[in-house]
Each structure stands twice: as structure tokens, then as C-alpha cells.
Design goal:
The chain is α+β, with helices and mostly antiparallel strands. The chain has five helices and nine strands; from the N terminus they run βααβββαβαβαβββ. The strands form two sheets. A seven-stranded mixed sheet has the order 1-2-3-4-5-9-6, with helices on both faces. Strand 2 and strand 3 form a beta hairpin. The longest helix is centred in the middle third of the chain and has 13 residues.
Length: 148
């Protein structure tokens, strides 16, 4: 398993990025100002993530996506741990924003995140179509925080 920074041609992983954030113009808002990492295993990329510096000691995980046929194998958790390891001491906390989904909230909590705050109506205000995950329409952005 190898994790590396993707410095050029980040859009080659657009199909993966769209799993974590299904509207391309929303991805474009942070991709250019973020740092992207890819996890490769067995000769192919299995997962990607993008983090941004939000100031005041806060690093935000804007996108975390694992290929559907590779989920539940620890790749997402490995990327989170990698981020914590390399940014510890440089940032105070890692934030992750997600919908109030029965699929993602438990994952982040299992990775050591705790609920921080809510941005009401984020998904309904910023996306051009309703977004559903695990049979639930995403409305509010739920932020979770993990100390670094």
C-alpha cells in the first residue's frame, strides 16, 4: 500500500472524487486550493482524499472516496490516519463535513471524530439536485472534528 500526493492532473481521479462529492462544480471549489492524496494498492488507486487549510489551525477533509469494490477494506481509515500522522503538530484539528447519513457519520466516529457543529440547509442551498445517501436526503452539513 502506498499513499502519495497528487500534484498534477487531479481530474484523472474525477470518477472517485464524484463518489465523495457528486457535483463537479463543488469539487472545483476546493480542488485547486487543496492538497490531494491517493492510496494505491496492488498497482491501482483505490481511494483519494482532498484536504484544505481553513486557517486558525484547522485542516478540513473536503473529500474522501474509496472505489465501490474496495470499500470496507480499511482504505478510508488508512487515509484518515495518514492525514493525522503527517499534519499532527502543524494543525490543531481535522474537520470533516458530511451529510447526516447512516453510512458516513458512523465511519468518521469510528475514526475518532466527534460532532462539532451543523450548517443548516447546506446541501439544499448549494447543490443543484437533491442528494440521497443510504436512503436519506442530505439537507444539513454535519461537521465532525478530530484533534491532531
Amino acid at each position: 500500500m502506498n499513499i502519495f500526493e497528487v500534484k498534477t492532473d487531479q481530474k484523472q481521479y474525477l470518477s472517485l472524487l464524484l463518489l465523495g462529492d457528486e457535483q463537479e462544480d463543488m469539487i472545483d471549489r476546493y480542488l485547486g486550493r487543496g492538497t490531494m492524496y491517493a492510496l494505491e494498492d496492488g498497482g491501482s488507486v483505490k481511494a483519494v482524499c482532498v484536504v484544505t487549510d481553513e486557517g486558525d489551525g484547522t485542516l478540513e477533509l473536503k473529500n474522501l472516496a474509496v472505489a465501490p469494490d474496495c470499500q470496507r477494506r480499511g482504505y478510508g481509515r488508512r487515509l484518515v490516519e495518514f492525514l493525522c500522522d503527517i499534519y499532527r503538530g502543524r494543525y490543531a484539528r481535522l474537520l470533516a463535513g458530511t451529510g447526516d447519513s447512516p453510512l458516513t457519520i458512523p465511519f468518521y466516529e469510528a475514526c475518532g471524530f466527534r460532532r462539532s457543529h451543523v450548517v443548516p440547509n447546506f446541501f439544499t442551498d448549494h447543490y443543484d439536485h437533491p442528494i440521497f445517501e443510504g436512503g436519506v436526503q442530505l439537507v444539513d452539513m454535519i461537521y465532525l472534528s478530530r484533534p491532531l
